[in-house]
Amino acid sequence: MDKKYYIAANWKMNASLSFIDDYFSSLDSNSENSNEMIVCPPDIYLQSVIKTAPKFIKTGAQNISSHDVGAYTGECSGEMLADHFVQYVIIGHSERRQYHQESNEEIKLKIMKAIENGINPILCIGESKKERELDQTFDVINNQIRSVLDSDLLSKDINMLIAYEPIWAIGTGLTATPDMANDVHSFIHSIVSEMTSKSIPIIYGGSMKESNAKELLEMEHIHGGLIGGASLDASEFLNIYNIAEEIRNG
Ligand code: PEP
Question: What is the arithmetic mean of pLDDT over 186-194?
Answer without folding.
Answer: 97
